[in-house]
């Protein structure tokens, strides 16, 4: 098999719930990310794209009709460009990138686009159909923005508790204090604001037509542990998780361009990073926040390296507690984790986050010249994904 490479990445800014992107349909957000990605490789004839693999976690509203294919059509690509939409909840777009890399490696396609989208603002309310016509009584509409809905009654109740309660249990298990969580969250905001001020994201973020947010909307300048300490716990009266040390609800899209080494001639540019290893892991649904530990370990083993070789980590910050628990378990230097800010500050539009962290990781390696990096993401209902990247854009050995 041939190797697969990442050639380019792009994303929209991530809007806060009800914010600047609230008026933009998810299929239009996806089209904007796709258009922005291809603008980075003007020599590429879009008709040569073998497939588009797109992630989306909701698919209950305007994103319900194979939103990947809708993005291809709305972006004006040739109708001959195929597309599929995959759903692994928070890991959907990282799963899309993994599937795209496999397609390249086995020779099914030479150039593949992967990415994902989520509009948590526009996620609809849903209700089940009645078992019979003209059923009496009221019906409750259920929000599809986040978490369980229309739960199967055979599912054990302990598995269907809120994501927040799952992570309170993780805080108990690993004795991760509220103080550490607030310090981690404040760091995320500080580093994200600094990365924007330094221009790190200028080349990665693309425009959404008619929308001009200056940067990711959820970043809070001047956020400090002391300020975060004043927030009320969200899931337990005596708990540690607040709105300040967990990722917010967001809207956004992200995409990556992948291909073989030979695809450089078609794309018109050299690759940035090689997909060196992939890992997936599943465990008890309540422990989903800790699942990246093993997923990353498997990806590293397949890459033939260990944590001592890794210089950069992009770990999606669903909650500060789970990010801290994973970092502690890996025994890596916390200073190499999310150095450009993470999802607590940047945002976590579920279907887009995996492609965002993968693109950010590639950009970090290119900037630093370091060779190896890991992107990992936890996934609700007890799963995680991880990818190891090898910098091929002039990496230091």
Molecular structure report:
This protein is of the alpha+beta class and 397 residues long. It has a domain at 5-122 and 248-390: 3-Layer(aba) Sandwich (Peroxisomal Thiolase, Chain A, domain 1), CATH 3.40.47.10. 30% of the residues lie in helices and 18% in strands. The protein is built from 11 helices and 12 strands. It has helices at residues 26-39, 67-74, 92-105, 163-174, 178-197, 225-229, 264-267, 292-303, 320-330, 343-346, 353-368; strands spanning 5-11, 15-16, 51-55, 83-86, 111-119, 125-126, 142-143, 250-259, 273-282, 312-315, 372-379, 383-391. The strands form 2 sheets. Strands 1, 2, 3, 4, 5, 8, 9, 10, 11 and 12 form a 10-stranded mixed beta sheet that branches. Strands 6-7 form a two-stranded antiparallel sheet. Strand 11 and strand 12 (383-391) form a beta hairpin. Helix 1 (26-39) packs across helix 2 and helix 3 (92-105) crosses helix 11 (353-368). It is globular.
Structure described in brief:
By secondary structure, this protein is α+β, with helices and mostly antiparallel strands. 30% of the residues lie in helices and 18% in strands. The protein has helices at 26-39, 67-74, 92-105, 163-174, 178-197, 225-229, 264-267, 292-303, 320-330, 343-346, 353-368; strands at residues 5-11, 15-16, 51-55, 83-86, 111-119, 125-126, 142-143, 250-259, 273-282, 312-315, 372-379, 383-391.
């Amino acid at each position: 098999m041939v190797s697969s490479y990442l050639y380019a990445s792009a994303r929209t800014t991530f809007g806060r719930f009800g914010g600047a992107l609230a008026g933009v349909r998810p299929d239009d957000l996806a089209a904007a990310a796709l258009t922005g990605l291809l603008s980075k490789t003007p020599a590429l004839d879009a008709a040569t794209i073998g497939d588009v693999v797109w992630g989306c976690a909701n698919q209950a509203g305007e994103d319900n009709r194979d939103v990947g294919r809708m993005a291809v059509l709305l972006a004006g690509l040739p109708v001959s460009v195929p597309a599929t939409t995959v759903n692994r909840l928070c890991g959907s777009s990282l799963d899309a990138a993994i599937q795209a890399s496999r397609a390249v490696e086995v020779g099914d396609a030479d150039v593949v686009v992967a990415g994902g989208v989520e509009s948590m603002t526009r996620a609809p309310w849903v209700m089940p159909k009645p078992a019979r016509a003209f059923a009496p009584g009221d019906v409750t509409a259920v929000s599809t923005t986040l978490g369980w809905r229309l739960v199967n009654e055979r599912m054990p109740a302990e598995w269907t508790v809120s994501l927040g309660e799952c992570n309170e249990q993780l805080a108990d298990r690993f004795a991760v204090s509220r103080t550490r969580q607030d310090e981690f969250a404040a760091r995320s905001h500080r580093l994200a604001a600094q990365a924007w001020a330094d221009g790190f994201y200028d080349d990665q973020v693309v425009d959404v037509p008619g929308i001009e947010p200056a940067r990711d909307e959820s970043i809070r300048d001047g956020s400090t542990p002391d300020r975060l300490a004043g927030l009320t716990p969200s899931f337990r009266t005596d708990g540690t998780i607040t709105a300040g040390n967990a990722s917010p609800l967001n809207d956004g899209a992200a995409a990556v361009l992948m291909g073989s080494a030979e695809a450089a001639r078609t794309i018109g540019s050299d690759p940035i990073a090689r997909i060196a290893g992939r890992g997936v892991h599943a465990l008890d649904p309540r422990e989903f926040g800790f699942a990246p530990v093993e997923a990353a370990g498997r990806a590293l083993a397949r890459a033939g390296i260990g944590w001592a070789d890794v210089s950069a980590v992009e770990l999606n910050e669903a909650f500060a507690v789970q990010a801290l628990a994973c970092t502690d378990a890996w025994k890596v230097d916390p200073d190499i984790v999310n150095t450009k800010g993470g999802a607590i500050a940047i945002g976590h539009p579920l279907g887009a986050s995996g492609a965002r962290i993968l693109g950010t990781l590639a950009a970090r390696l290119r900037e630093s010249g370091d060779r190896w990096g890991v992107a990992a993401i936890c996934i609700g209902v007890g799963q995680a994904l991880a990818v190891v990247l090898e910098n091929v854009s002039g990496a230091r050995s």
